[in-house]
Amino acid sequence: MKPQIFVPALSDAQRQSLHQGLRSADAFTVRRCQILLASAQGHAPAVIARQLGCTARTVRNAIHTFRHEGLDCLHAKSSRPHSARPFLDETYTTALQDLLHPSPRTLDKPTSLWTLDLVAEVCYSRGWTPRPLTGEAIRVALKRLGIRWRRAKHWITSPDPAYTRKKKPVTV
């Protein structure tokens, strides 16, 4: 069984801030205030969890965070991992620009137009990324690196030198 954990004695200013937090528009802040005020009244984490419809681990996390951060724990932090770094960083900017300029056919691809998924496939095959990325991840990386991405337009071209003369005029 886990040992009982409670918040330390609250000062009047802390108690007032917690009561104000109960009227917050942010659900995270309201929940934290409910947990901390109930713990200050001497309720055990399991009892608080049952009353609020959450887990006892959530209650213990809130109490531990309050002990370390004080009232700063009432605001949700970023859920992004601290170790997260982009797969394609600034070292690949010129390489990506050089990749996107020529046609994909120069790399023996079956199309003349670059797609984001095709760029992701080539980046993985060249060892620039540790795993295959999605087209959306490539779009975000290109935007972050300042590389403008516009999909090529489709239009009809012909190797015939007299193509434009033979082409029917558009009637309105």
Can you tell me about this structure?
With 172 residues, the chain is an all-alpha fold. The chain has 8 helices and no strands. The chain is elongated and about 90 Å long. The mean pLDDT is 87.
Can you lay out the helices and strands and say which pair or pack?
Layout: H1 12-21, H2 27-40, H3 45-52, H4 56-69, H5 93-100, H6 116-125, H7 135-144, H8 163-166
The coarse silhouette is: elongated
Q: From N to C, what is the helix and strand string?
A: HHHHHHHH
Rounded mean pLDDT is: 87
Q: Which spans have pLDDT < 50 for at least 5 consecutive residues?
A: none
Q: Percent helix among the residues?
A: 40-55%
Report the major sheet. none
Task: Return Rg in Å.
Answer: 29 Å
In short:
The protein is mainly alpha-helical and 172 residues long.
Keywords summarizing the entry:
single chain; 172 residues; mainly alpha; 8 helices; 45% helix; elongated
